[in-house]
Amino acid sequence: MSEFLGALAEHAFLRNALAAGLLASVACGIVGSYVSARRITYIAGGIAHSVLGGMGVARYLQVVLDWEWLHPLHGAVFAALLSAVIIWIVSLRWRESEDTAIGAIWAIGMAVGVLFIYRTPGYSENLMSYLFGNILMVTPGSLWLMAALDVVVLVLGLAFYRQFLAISFDEEFARLRGVNVEVHYLLLLCLTALTVVLLVTVVGLVMVIALLTLPVAAAGRFGRSLWQVMLLSSALAAVLTTAGLAISYGADLPTGATIIVLAGAVYLLVIGASSIADAVRRRRAAAD
Amino acid sequence: MSETRAVPDAAAGADTAGRSPVVELEGVDFAYGGAPVLQDVGFAILERDFVGVVGPNGGGKTTLLKLMLGLLQPDSGTVRVFGRPPVAAAERVGYVPQSFQYDSRLPVTVADVVLMGHLGHRHPFGARRSEAQAEVRGGLAAVDLSGIEARRFADLSGGQQQRVLIARALATQPDMLMLDEPMASLDVGAEREILDLLQELNRRMTIVLVTHDLGFVSSAVTRVLCVNRQVLRHPTTEICQVTGDVLERLYGSDRKVVRHDETYQEDDRGE
Q: Which of A34, A168, A177, A222 to substitute to test the interface with B, most B CBs within 10 Å?
């Protein structure tokens, strides 16, 4: 651990990586809680994979047209928001085709990304770092973009807390109270899209779902209300990304995969322990 | 309170005691897909009525309630609530849904649920914190559940959950309360408590109660709506003397229109 702290003081890229992990953790806890509450994990997965299309196109334009200012992260934001809007429109008009639409967006986004990366001159290493993340490559420029996304997610996610909670609990009643359920659904999908982009830079698009769901699922065993679950899962995600970074640095392992394995282990531990505790409590209650 | 908020243009249908109609349906048809659920339904509910809505399963009770709430739109005919379209009147109506389905893993406390009644029209971003907490306490006290606001909703018994949902509906400060089978799946003691509570509330608001157990609520209701594709209305005095014969026809397997010896439809519509 002290070795990691020393390295942290020495290397800017490690500090950037740590900051990226912490920024992503905040959005991860807030939006992850909503995603679980509304059961749209599959949608989050679709959006995450479609992001490859945006990153591939942006990278291609950056290299081929010499657009220095364009970063793959910009393409990711665009693709994620576009996917969110498409899924929203399909869910409004053709509810029964929603699954098909998500699957299509998932696969088409990846295919477009692969094609553009294939045609981009230079290293094709990019593909691997998009898929599995490369937190050690986070630049100060992308950190600022991540911070901006984080602020948007934080402000909107908390401002509409009551509406999101009411819709998750009882959509019909929320509607009767004058809450525009459809508009709030679009807002939630867009917040999910931005969060996915934040997480892609940390663990890569393939493993986004794990980081979006596992800390929330573990925190859900302890939190009594949704905001408690948000706080707990944000904290847990921060611990997991930091610990994952430290371990992977010390042992020279890929950071994204280390974080995910760690998250899976913590989740299993929490679920196992609380199931045993529940069983003991029930047996005691039955004995009384 | 409700007197002063009575809608002037609805006063034409007022009864002899001067009470105005709060709900008026006229010639309402509704079908799911091709299957007609309600046909040519017309009736009026007056201020501070306690209406029991009865009828066989699939007869259209819940559909009727959702039409009055504005959650469904009639294929033809008009629905007026407080003299306005139901959607426009929604803020004056409290609603307690049927056989409540929710995700029991969703972390939500009793206070969270009650506060959902504050959403929307009155407080777009929610009430102020201290004000909200006071209202939650008051609302829970009204349904005799003081001191449980911090507990998880999922950990409550069925009867407690039902009362929390009533507190949520009351938090909207309604002039009319609509309940869809609130006593389903409760034991007799809990049923009795909820009925007492509703009778108490009936002193200041109109109550519309969908129920499958007419006998149980007959002591409380002032009017009965029998829903089986069509809607017929009784004063309760009559329903209290309902014979086995009528009940058999009401709940009988054939889905034909229920025949009642006497209907009050015509004068209710003010025709």
A: A177
A243: containing domain: 2-287
Rounded percentage of chain B residues whose pLDDT exceeds 70: 73
User: Which residues on adjacent β-strands are paired with residue B235?
Assistant: B223
Q: Report the range of poorest mean pLDDT among A155-164, B98-107, B217-226, B252-261.
A: B252-261
- Asked if B116 lies within 8 A of A166 by C-beta distance, the reply is yes
Using the predicted structure, report yes or no on whether residue A262 has a pLDDT greater than 90. yes
Mean pLDDT, chain A, whole residue set: 91
Nearest-angstrom CA–CA distance, A269 and B60? 49
Note whether A165 contacts B: Cβ–Cβ < 8 A: yes
Q: Which residue of B has its CA nearest to A158?
A: B125
Q: Residue ranges of the alpha helices (H) in chain A?
A: 2-10, 12-37, 41-64, 72-93, 98-119, 125-132, 140-159, 161-169, 171-176, 181-203, 208-219, 226-251, 255-287
User: Measured between beta carbons, which residues in chain A are less than 8 angstroms from residue B125?
Assistant: 159, 162
Residue B251 near chain A (CB below 8 Å): no
For an interface test with B, the pick among A38, A173, A181, A228 (most B C-beta atoms closer than 10 Å) comes out as A173
Contact B113, B149 (CB under 8 A): no
Do A240 and A259 meet the contact criterion of CB atoms below 8 Å apart? Answer: yes
Its ipTM equals: 0.83
Of A11-25, B15-29, B206-220, highest mean pLDDT: A11-25
Q: What is the pTM of this model?
A: 0.83
Contacts of B127 in chain A (CB under 8 A): none
Give the residue, A268 or B143, on which the prediction is more confident: A268
- Smallest Cβ–Cβ distance between B97 and the set A173, A178, A226 belongs to A173
CATH of the domain at A207: 1.10.3470.10
Contacts of A212 by beta carbon, 8 Å cutoff, 6+ apart: A28, A31, A32, A35, A41, A44, A195, A196, A199
Q: A181 contacts in B (CB within 8 Å)?
A: none
Q: What is the mean pLDDT of chain B?
A: 75
In B60-130, DSSP assigns E strands to 76-81, 93-96
Among candidates A179, A223, A226 on the partner chain, residue whose Cβ is nearest the Cβ of B120: A179
Is pLDDT at A239 greater than 60 in this prediction? Answer: yes
**Domains contained in chain A, number:** 1
